[in-house]
Amino acid sequence: MDHARSTISKIFNGEPRSYTRFNLTQNMEGENSQVEMKLSSDMDEEVGGNGVGEDLNHAKEPYVVHKPAGRTPKNVCFMVATVLLIFIISYLIGYLSHRKTELAPPSCSRSTFEESITEDSVKMEADPLMDWKDVKSLLDQKMTASSIESAFSEFASKSHQAGSAGDMALANKVLGRFKEYGMDTWTDGHFVKLVDPPASGSNMVTFKGSDLGELRGYLAYSKTGTAKGAVLHGNYGQMDDLGKLQDKNIALDGRVLLVRSGKISFAEKVANAAKLNASAVLIYPDGDRRLGGSTQLFGHVHLGSGDPYTPGFPSFNHTQFPPVQSSGLPSIQAQTITVNMAATIMKGMEGTSAPTGWVGVGRLGDDKDMVTVEVNNVLSEKFINNVFGVIKGFVDPDRFVVMGAQRDAWGPGFASSTVGTSVLVELARAISDMVKNDGFKPRRSIVFASWSAGEYGSVGATEWLEGYLSSLNMKAFSYINLDGVVSGFPTFKASASPLMYTLIQRTLREVNTLSDFGTLYSAVPGSNWEAAVMEPLRLNDPAYPFITFSGIPSVSFRFTTEGAEYPYLGTLDDTRDKLYGATSNQVAKLAVSAGQFAGKMALRLVHDHLLHLDVEKYIRQIRTHVFAINSKIQKVQSMQPQMLPKSLSVHWLISATGSYSRAASRLSNEIDNSNLEDVAMCRNINDRIMSVERDFLSPYVSPRETPFRHILVGSGSHTLKALSDHLDALQNDQSDADADLFRIEFALATWTIQGCANSLAGEVWSIDNMI
């Protein structure tokens, strides 16, 4: 405007007029226009003197305006018209400058303005985005069954147990592939405590004095030593199962619990038995005609993840840490046995009949049915290596999605590790090629991770999370797990953070079934896709520590056979032939579909301006817990008034829930009305979205004592589910009920939800704090 006033003054004072040149160009997205204004008021200084030079290096003849001899009516009209034109132009410049806040305000100086829009200053916005349809199409073209088959052959291994030479050889192969694709690579090494079978001799189980035979399978982290007691069948070892035994007035004290695999993890079965004072646990494979009677079973019984001897911190240098251990280590012996061994025991068992619904279980066992369990496993220290490669983003390279797969296995591990590793490497190849050769430029980064010691409870992945916790939960916005993505056909199942449900639904619509006659979404049975596809996130899910320990929204998924889980996981029979037989020879095609599903989720997360994580999805889950807690508090206050005083109100918890709901809705409205070209605004919104999962981690418990701190999907007394269970104990006046402890946990959970709402609201002046 100062320049406009100067120009007007020159006009009325009869001084030479300058010209103004406008060049309307579209920005890099083609959605809006921006004005490039070049003013030449100082042209006379460029050529010298008051006139226009005769030798100008211009492509066109310059304007030459001579000083008027006098103010004729014609000149006056011309000047008035010029003033109006300049006024309109100045108004438009101000309006456009207000709209385009990311550009510096126009300056009268040509050089200053041009410097503000140099290539370097707008590099992030100068590169045109590839259309999402083209991105999907490119991925589909590059993920092929033939390339997956080649990867199967390259990464299959008969022996690659964590910390072994075979595991290290596979790590080097993966690292070599990442380097070949031009990715930035690095490794992450740890000294961890793993468990091997006895170096000499073996573990032993005897029934009524008779040895049941050779035991090659074992359960890592079991308590070593010998336990003896009367055998008692516990079905699947769930607390409901054990509760049915107690309903029959059968005590578990000192008993050796015989349970079958399935339903819950081995670690949970052993922990449940230990709670009721059982002396040991024997686990046998659940009945499946495909599984041989002598098949040995492998697993672990650490009720947690990571190295249990460095709980809550990384095993980078084992000499630096005190001699502590995880509270999730079992206090009793645990051992796997074969189907034939279990059949021998059950044939000789007496006692009462099994509860209704316990299919295949006859008698429960009598006090005379004595079993001895001897565990001689060896705890050893081993070096493991995680391998990484990254495709860096072009706008926010410091924000990234992680895709990972375990590399190790007890034996061949074709379904448990080979397929996932192959899909991981093929996705790295395909997306790298899209960036190098097809012009795809992701906004954010993609990290590819090959983990070791996954069979021992996501040890490699958890150690990495522990090592970099302070930065990961600020920068990693999602984890996509590729372990066990193909174990059957044709059912599709997934478990995930609620933040990812909407993204999962959209991606199901973008991946075709093997017949190509429809999408995975159209193949979902029934009208409720969530009920048909989504499963609860369990402790033994490799994605579990990412959500509950680090606060990173995560997803696991797999193709499976409805009602018939793949029986060979955790056995030495998990081979290529077995998996091909279980999928009608469709493994490669299913792996391609799995790669397309994982790849399209990752690409959507790094392609679009805003993260496709739905913060409103947690509202229903929070309200469900709060409704249950409110109802139970009222019951306790009416039935056990001495436990909880009437002054204890659920109002504040309900208010915190409302604060989160309003903050989530307001953020959704901001997203609907946002200017996607405003880079700073998009980053602010994305950071608020990323804060949700992290802020549901209770800040009031120790990561070492209670690693799974998430109040909604974690485990421990701080969770909303634990609060509900605690109210049941208070209502029934159980010995472990503690009203004071409940009130403390209740208050802390309330403020955790309110704190999450405050963070989601954004700036401190936007907080809706009704408490």
UniProtKB/TrEMBL annotation:
The chain crosses the membrane at residues 76-96. GO terms for biological process: intracellular iron ion homeostasis; receptor internalization; transferrin transport. Belongs to the peptidase M28 family. M28B subfamily. This is Transferrin receptor protein 1. Its main location: membrane. It comes from Salmo salar (Atlantic salmon). Residues 249-296 form the PA domain. It is a single-pass type II membrane protein. GO terms for cellular component: external side of plasma membrane; melanosome. It is found in: Cell membrane; Melanosome. Residues 649-760 form the Transferrin receptor-like dimerisation domain. GO terms for molecular function: transferrin receptor activity. The lineage of its organism: Eukaryota, Metazoa, Chordata, Craniata, Vertebrata. Keywords: Cell membrane, Endocytosis, Glycoprotein, Lipoprotein, Membrane, Palmitate, Receptor, Transmembrane, Transmembrane helix. InterPro entries: PA_dom_sf, PA_domain, Peptidase_M28, Peptidase_M28B, TFR-like_dimer_dom, TFR-like_dimer_dom_sf. Stearoylated. Residues 386-586 form the Peptidase M28 domain. The keyword Glycoprotein applies. Cellular uptake of iron occurs via receptor-mediated endocytosis of ligand-occupied transferrin receptor into specialized endosomes. Endosomal acidification leads to iron release. The apotransferrin-receptor complex is then recycled to the cell surface with a return to neutral pH and the concomitant loss of affinity of apotransferrin for its receptor. Transferrin receptor is necessary for development of erythrocytes and the nervous system. Acts as a lipid sensor that regulates mitochondrial fusion by regulating activation of the JNK pathway. Homodimer; disulfide-linked.
